[in-house]
Structures are given as C-alpha cells and as structure tokens.
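Can anyone check this?
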Amino acid sequence: MQDTWHAAPDPGAAASEAEALDAYSKVVTSVAERLIPSVASLRVVSRGWGGQLPTGTGSGVVITPDGFLLTSAHVVERASRGSATLQDGRELPFEIVGTDPLSDLAVIRADGRDLTPATLGDADTLRVGQLVCAVGSPLGFAGSVSAGVVSALGRSLTTQAGRTGRLVENVIQTDASLHPGNSGGALANARAEVVGINTAVVSPGVGQGLGLAVPINAATRQIIAALMGDGRVRRAYLGIGGGSRPLPPRSATAAGQALGIEVLSVVAGSPAAQAGLRPQDCIVRVDGVPVPDVGTLQRLMTGDRIGRRVSVEVVRDGRLRDIPVRLTELPEG
C-alpha cells in the first residue's frame, strides 16, 4: 500500500491568518461602535387617499447634535411625518426639512437634542478594493452592520423627479450586503467617516451581490447645505437632451477638446429653444468651461446661473458658434 503524505500545518501561517482576521474585525468593530449611535431607524407615515398611512422603514444618519439627519429622498417620498429610533432607545418624531429626488438625498429634523453626529468624509478619496462598512436598519433591525469593499467607482445612478431626469455621478458600488431598510443609512470608511448614503440594491434577491451609495463629496455637501437652509435645491435649466460624442478631427482641433454633447432634442419653450439651439448641434463649452459629457453640464447648472445669460459654444455644420442663452430655474416635478 502506498503511503499518503500530508503536509503538516504551518503554525506561522495559521497565526498570520488569525492576526489578519483579528485586525479586520477590530476595524469593523471600531466603525460599528462609533457609528451605530449616529444611525437611526426611520418609520415613515405617508399621505394617502385615505389620510395618513404607515409605510416601510429606512435609515437616517445624524449630522448635527440638534436633530438634523441625512437620508435618501425615496425613503421619505410623499411622507408627511415619521419617527426616528436611536440606539439609546429614544423614539423621536421628525419632520421633513427638504428633499432632492434628483440626488436621492433628503434632510429631516428630529425633535431631540444632544444627538451624536457622524463625521462626514470625502468619497473622492476612495479607491477600489478599500474596506467599507454599511450601517443601517435593514429589515427593521436597528444598528446592523455589514462590511465589504468598494467594488467600483464612477458609476451613475438615474434619478427622476416628475418629467425631469438626472444622472447622479460617481456613485459608489460596494459588495457590503444591503437589505430593504438600509436605504438612507451610512456607508463608512475604516475611520468611521460617512462617505456615502446607501441608496439601492442593484441585484436580484434581497441582500445579494452589489449595492450603490450616493457619495459624500463637495457636490453633495452643497446639496445638503441647500436642503438644510432652504429646504430645496435650485438648479439652472437649459432644456436639451443629449449625450457625449467624439468631435470630428477638424472640429476637435478648433475646439481644443475631443468630446462634446450632441443635442438630440430641445424642449419646446425652454431657454435652449428660445436661444436657437437645435438637434445635431454639439455643445463644447458653457460659460467658457469645456463640457465633454452630460455630467459636466449638470454640474454647471447651479443656482447662481439662474437668470444669467451664459455663453454656449457649439459646433454646427463644422463651425464653432457662440450662442448666448439666458438660463431659467429648473421647474420642480
């Protein structure tokens, strides 16, 4: 009979694995201990045909000691009021301060003081493969934590407000398990800084595969500030539909860039229509800023440009043209 040889276990390798697992556990435990007191379970009451109707649950992240919380706009969509339950057992009624469906962010204010605010980080510093933790109230279980990695960056999420659509850019894709109720909760880095607000489960089956989070960065901080101060986000309105396309070589040389936005449709009565923009125009600059894609154009449609006449530079029939457009305010809904 032939003897079968088995390698002896390597005590050093086993110890290294145990140390690595322990280090991973320490990070996740630390994030949980610091963030769970700042994440609330939300119960929402919505307006219905028969009056006030209880709906599902979500999560919210405390951002100030005096009761401001950040959540997903779709969690409080059509809501009239609700309650936020904290780790310490307090159940606080809240009112909706402002919602922005086009970024899927909302700010609510709970009737409480001495809350523990989370620290907001910067999603622009994230890297693919980086450890992240999702903290929320999935399936109604408050203070639940799951861990994973950033599986992709630069994704886009399509949002809708009435007939107006928008792309939320630089959405964070993660494999940290997300369940119903996680929406509005925190996605945090290893320093327990909130770098995203969990917004969607994108794969079939509850908690399987990949989830998305709206990033916390300079752009979304401006949205949060506007919601806290004014209850809404004002955006300028141009009134075109289009997509990024490469410029012909001669036009690219003249414009000094390789890409522009081809105008596919112009909304009747919009600032673009009134200024004479038309399908097949290719927008290359707005206010002197190159616009190679729709996301860049969206970022330029800020409240301070409402009512202003801006320069829209287009390629038309192979030639560069400068068309002045007076922007109006994007209508709500």
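Reply from J.R.: I decoded it. DSSP finds five helices and 21 strands in the chain.
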